[in-house]
């Protein structure tokens, strides 16, 4: 059964996308940040390392909801934002008034690349329970949503607001057209948002866990560190 704190994020699943399946892979450890910047083939990555962020976006990727002057950070500010572990570069801080994806920051694939992207990875820093990542198909339909609480539980980590993870979302039933980030009141920090195709991109994963989501109900076994687990939400 889904815990109450996860219900809001899980509710984003719609009946029209009941057959969509999103696999989540989580990588932790000292090499996670470096792994988040690895690209190959047709991959597109947003690094936030540009003075003019909009102009620095890779071709075929569009961003919305960002204030490039205010939301791109480097370093930490006590009580305001925290640098993702191991990240000495610029990163994105997202802070919204609600967990609704409509008020968040979005990154969308707009090009006609072949194959289409089925995976989006990001380096998720200083994870808080109420951080939310929404995953969309190519028809702008929301197919999944994940909270920081879910990611920490999968990784077997306690919530302290200082953990950072490389998280990859893969749509096993099609392509991913967009992701949206939201976090009410407490910031979400993220870097190296990468669009790729799982069939052509390999990323080093020193400690990986996985779950399969299709709907709402949880089925699965107890996860152990450094062991792959799959869960099904129906």
UniProtKB/TrEMBL annotation:
The lineage of its organism: Bacteria, Pseudomonadati, Pseudomonadota, Alphaproteobacteria, Sphingomonadales. It comes from Sphingobium boeckii. Keywords: Signal. It comes from the Bacteria. This is Ice-binding protein C-terminal domain-containing protein. Residues 1-20 form the signal peptide. Residues 202-227 form the Ice-binding protein C-terminal domain. InterPro entries: Ice-binding_C.
């Amino acid at each position: 059964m889904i815990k109450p704190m996860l219900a809001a994020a899980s509710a984003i699943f719609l009946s029209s996308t009941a057959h969509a399946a999103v696999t989540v892979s989580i990588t932790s450890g000292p090499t996670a940040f470096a792994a988040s910047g690895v690209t190959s083939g047709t991959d597109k990555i947003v690094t936030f390392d540009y003075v003019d962020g909009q102009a620095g976006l890779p071709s075929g990727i569009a961003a919305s909801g960002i204030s490039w002057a205010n939301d791109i950070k480097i370093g930490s500010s006590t009580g305001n934002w925290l640098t993702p572990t191991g990240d000495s570069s610029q990163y994105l801080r997202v802070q919204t008034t609600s967990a609704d994806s409509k008020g968040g920051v979005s990154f969308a694939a707009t090009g006609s690349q072949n194959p289409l992207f089925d995976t989006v990875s990001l380096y998720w820093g200083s994870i808080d329970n109420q951080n939310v990542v929404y995953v969309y198909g190519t028809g702008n339909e929301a197919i999944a949503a994940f909270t920081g609480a879910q990611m920490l539980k999968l990784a077997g980590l306690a919530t302290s607001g200082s953990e950072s993870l490389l998280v990859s979302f893969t749509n096993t039933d099609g392509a991913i057209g967009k992701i949206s980030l939201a976090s009410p009141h407490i910031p979400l920090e993220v870097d190296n948002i990468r669009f790729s195709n799982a069939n052509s991109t390999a990323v080093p994963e020193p400690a990986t866990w996985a779950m399969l989501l299709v709907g709402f109900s949880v089925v699965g076994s107890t996860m152990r560190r450094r062991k792959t687990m799959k869960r099904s939400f129906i």
